[in-house]
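wait is this the right file?? whatever heres the structure
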């Protein structure tokens, strides 16, 4: 980054009060190290998107009341620097290292437990699990408060016991001497001087107390004497203490070497903890601002919904939210009264741009979009410089020249009172020229102005868009609401009146105003009134839309209630249907049992057949237990509408209710015929059947030369015809069915074949896994005594996908 670019960034940061917002963020951090490092701005859009995604994950954790564990985080900068130079760490520093390692382990486990919510944070906060061993080793020697454990080593434990015992004996001896020589002691206590135990003896009596003098009191009235009786023990205590300290230093050096060996992992763990600390701080600030994660783009556009100034929101000010839109190569010209919030709008856009680059949720509605802007160029406030001998206007122009040099696609330019502080006519002309140049350079531009020519320019140039801060026309007070496509009135005279300027002064000033200015103000007022009317109409339309949505929701709820009622009714009907089916199954089982009895006479056979026919008619598609389908026309190439069918037995007809062709198997009875479609037989009205084109009834007279089958053929007197080949009458298809359901259908089919003219039946079960084929053949061979033969189909009959059986 060049020096000029750094100056621009610093200027923008100061103008937008970014340091205040950054300080508010860092106050949310737990670690002083995190606060010291601060928060930076991402250098590219991908890093910014990653930072925003990490903050969004931290916000999700806070919303579920699962804050990441960071309580053990310590500032390890000094300890890490010392360890990197192979210096020994003291016990408190090692205790801090251990606390940080414990926090790192807790964070690693936390992220593993919440892996679904934290994919980005887990990637950026990787922590080496092997650090758990170092944590345990330090914990074996160092207490959490930074003191050495008694059992840090066997030698240290022995020396500490020895030191304790010596100290107890010395103290016991001193207490005895104090009691014995109280008359010559200046006070009844003992203390340490240069590591030696001494008692205070009166100066005039110290010769009567035998021992070694180690000093006098500040007043000189007392002499500190080490009694002769504890000198030898004191010497041993001194030596034991020195040995214990040497052992402690050895332990500390050993632990420090372990820390130095694992230093890269320790640094990474510390960085991960501080990164999480900062992410959680961003999330807390985002929640405090009621912010959201914006969509970060590279198109140079801004679309903020209900945006609020973050610093004002943090200060507790009731900020009026506004929708703000900007585009690359285009300019937004904001006008309106002083103290109306124009500069606040500029700062809101600028701070949101910096917050997005820093990964901080912006105070705007969800779904807001903002581009990655680099650089952000500003000219806000008074730039007068006495040091550089520059007037306000000169400093302003100097800054504008620098902004023009740096403006380019991807830049955000925010200018307050563009080209002000000079002759209004020349200043307005300069402002128009600067606006044109900035748009030509492709920057996204937003300015504020009081210049009427600039307002008019914003209405003429298609690259510019006029906007104004709201003004209550009755009270002449700002509403702080941004109105698009309408220039605002400066209303300087009205503002002056509101702040107490005498009415006479206001009237005189109004008379001095040129006619053009009065006409323009009147035009702007009319536009403002029209905009207010449109706003009211829009609000009314919004109210109607909300009412309509509410009504639609009520209708949807009512429809769902009706559907639920229908489902309950269907359930009740289904339960009744199931009961009917169970009854039909019981009757069918009874008929099957009768048919299995070989001693049935002709009447018994007819009774069983009648029972089977009745059950079949009830469970058929048009039976009592199911509603009839809507009639459908037959295929155009097989059925002719209005053509009377041949209702002779054996005739092929099309039955719309079945959506298929069928064969008539029984003649007319009461206007009905009985038809068979595969294994299904049922009675239908003659009017419901259709003729099949070019189909000769199977019961028609055979052609000349053909002979009819003899009643004394292979079937014998029973009338069976033996092998007749596959047809719809002697074939049942059970492909795809479950075994239990398939075997039930097979039994019904076999029962029907007992009264059919054919001796052989064909069961189509397909190949599949072979389970259904095996079950069918086993059932036919073992469970059905009237089946005399079971075989696979021939190649012409369908091969192993078909089972053929013969009944007697």
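ok assuming it is, sequence goes like this
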């Amino acid at each position: 980054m060049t020096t000029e670019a750094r100056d621009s960034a610093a200027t923008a940061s100061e103008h937008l009060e970014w340091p205040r917002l950054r300080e508010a963020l860092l106050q949310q951090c737990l670690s002083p190290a995190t606060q010291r490092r601060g928060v930076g701005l991402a250098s590219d859009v991908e890093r910014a998107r990653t930072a925003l995604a990490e903050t969004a994950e931290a916000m999700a954790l806070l919303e579920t009341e699962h804050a990441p564990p960071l309580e053990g985080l310590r500032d390890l900068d000094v300890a890490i620097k010392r360890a990197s130079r192979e210096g020994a760490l003291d016990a408190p520093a090692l205790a801090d290292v251990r606390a940080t390692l414990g926090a790192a382990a807790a964070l690693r486990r936390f992220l593993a437990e919440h892996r679904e919510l934290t994919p980005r944070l887990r990637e950026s906060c990787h922590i080496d699990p092997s650090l758990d061993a170092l944590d345990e080793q330090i914990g074996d020697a160092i207490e959490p408060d930074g003191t050495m454990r008694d059992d840090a080593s066997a030698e240290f434990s022995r020396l500490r016991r020895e030191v304790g015992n010596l100290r107890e004996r010395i103290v016991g001896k001193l207490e005895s001497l104090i009691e014995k020589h109280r008359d010559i002691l200046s006070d009844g206590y003992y203390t340490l001087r240069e590591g030696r135990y001494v008692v205070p003896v009166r100066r005039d009596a110290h010769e009567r107390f035998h021992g070694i003098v180690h000093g006098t009191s500040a007043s000189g009235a007392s002499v500190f004497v080490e009694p002769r009786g504890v000198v030898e023990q004191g010497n041993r205590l001194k030596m034991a203490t020195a040995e214990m300290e040497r052992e402690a230093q050895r332990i500390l050096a050993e632990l420090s070497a372990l820390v130095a060996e694992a230093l890269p992992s320790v640094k990474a763990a510390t960085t991960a903890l501080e990164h999480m600390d900062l992410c959680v701080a961003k999330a807390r600030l985002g929640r405090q601002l009621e912010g959201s994660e914006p969509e970060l783009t590279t198109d140079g556009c801004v679309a903020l919904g209900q945006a609020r100034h973050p610093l004002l929101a943090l200060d507790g000010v009731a900020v009026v939210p506004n929708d703000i839109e900007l585009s690359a190569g285009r300019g937004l010209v904001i006008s309106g009264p002083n103290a109306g919030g124009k500069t606040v709008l500029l700062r809101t856009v600028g701070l949101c741009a910096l917050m997005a680059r820093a990964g901080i949720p912006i105070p705007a509605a969800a779904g807001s979009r903002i581009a990655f802007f680099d650089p952000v160029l500003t000219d806000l406030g008074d730039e007068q410089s006495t040091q550089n001998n520059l007037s306000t206007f000169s400093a302003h122009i100097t800054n504008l020249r620098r902004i023009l040099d740096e403006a380019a696609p991807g830049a955000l330019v925010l200018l307050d009172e563009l080209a002000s502080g000079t002759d209004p006519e020349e200043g307005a002309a300069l402002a128009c020229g600067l606006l044109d140049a900035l748009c030509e350079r492709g920057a996204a531009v937003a300015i504020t102005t009081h210049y009427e020519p600039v307002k008019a320019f914003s209405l003429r140039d298609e690259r510019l868009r006029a906007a104004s801060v709201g003004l209550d026309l009755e009270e002449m007070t700002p509403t702080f609401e941004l109105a698009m496509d309408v220039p605002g009135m400066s209303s300087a005279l009205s503002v002056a009146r509101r702040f107490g300027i005498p009415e006479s002064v206001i009237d005189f000033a109004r008379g001095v105003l040129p006619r053009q200015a009065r006409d323009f103000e009147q035009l702007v007022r009319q536009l403002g009134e029209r905009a207010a009317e449109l706003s009211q109409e829009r609000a009314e339309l919004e109210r109607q839309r909300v009412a309509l949505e509410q009504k639609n929701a009520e209708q949807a709820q009512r429809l769902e209630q009706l559907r639920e009622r229908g489902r309950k009714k269907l359930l009740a009907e289904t339960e009744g249907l199931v009961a009917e089916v169970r009854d039909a199954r019981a009757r069918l089982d009874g008929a099957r049992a009768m048919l299995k009895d070989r001693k049935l006479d002709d009447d018994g056979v007819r009774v069983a057949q009648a029972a089977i026919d009745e059950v079949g008619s009830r469970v058929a598609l048009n039976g009592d237990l199911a509603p009839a389908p809507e009639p459908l026309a037959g295929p155009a190439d097989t059925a002719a509408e209005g053509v009377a069918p041949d209702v002779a037995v054996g005739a092929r007809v099309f039955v719309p209710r079945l959506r298929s062709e069928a064969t008539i198997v029984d003649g007319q009875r009461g206007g009905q015929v009985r038809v068979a479609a595969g294994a299904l037989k049922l009675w239908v009205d003659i009017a419901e059947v259709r003729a099949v084109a070019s189909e000769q009834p199977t019961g028609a007279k055979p052609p000349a030369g053909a002979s009819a089958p003899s009643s004394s053929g292979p079937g014998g007197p029973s009338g069976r015809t033996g092998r007749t080949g596959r047809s719809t009458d002697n074939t049942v298809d059970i492909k795809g069915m479950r075994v239990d359901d398939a075997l039930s259908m097979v039994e019904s089919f076999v029962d029907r074949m007992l009264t059919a003219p054919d001796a052989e039946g064909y069961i189509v079960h397909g190949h599949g896994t072979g389970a259904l084929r095996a079950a069918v053949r086993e059932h036919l061979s073992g469970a059905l005594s009237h089946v005399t033969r079971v075989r696979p189909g021939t190649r012409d009959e369908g091969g192993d996908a078909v089972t053929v059986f013969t009944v007697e």
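The CA atoms of residues 13 and 753 lie 95 Å apart. so i think its the right one actually
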